[in-house]
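Cross-check.
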Amino acid sequence: MLRDLVLSRKGLVPGAVLAASSLLFSSCAQSADGQTTQAQGTGIGALLGAGAGAIIGNQSGHAGEGALIGAALGGVGGFAYGTHVANKKAKYKSTEEWLDACIADAGQKRDAAAAYNNKLSQRISHLQQEIAAAKSSGNTSKLASIKREISVDKADAIKNRDLYQKEAQAQMGAIKQAGSEAPSKVRQLRVSANGIESQAVGINKNVSRFAALENQIDV
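Predicted model, tokenized:
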């Protein structure tokens, strides 16, 4: 779901709202009480994130991309909060059922992080081209505008990096809770948790790339 948001460049604000609405009906938790809590956290987070992202993006002339990044950010934040509240092992019929829910949840986060990372790489490539063109034409006002955009993009990437790191830690916490129970499922969850952490590292590399681009512009 977030993958579709990340790869789309048009109608992003409505898309974020639709994504949040859909997320209200899906969650990691299997119990009725836990499912409501998880879904509420996710939906509210995505909606608020999309709104904040649109405002930030609009300041740089890229409201659509701002909404996109904000929706991803808010969605992750909502999931992290919802998972913390809903993922109580005692609410599940068995450890296996609880771990299955966590595995599905972690896999979704890993895929969303990978899609977001890919979007960042595409954005950086586009910015590199814009910088080269502006320098070639001596357009200092364009360079100043690009530098402001980079600053916004970098700040959003840092926030998402931190949230995905926290998500990986939350999943590792579930692994710790499982202990020696259901070892095969614990291994599956560990793979996804490591994948989330790996994507967070990738996002951090893109943060460094944004910083390098900023340093290329002397205006």
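Confidence is low (pLDDT under 50) at residues 1-37. The chain has one domain: 2-216. Passed to J.P. for a second look.
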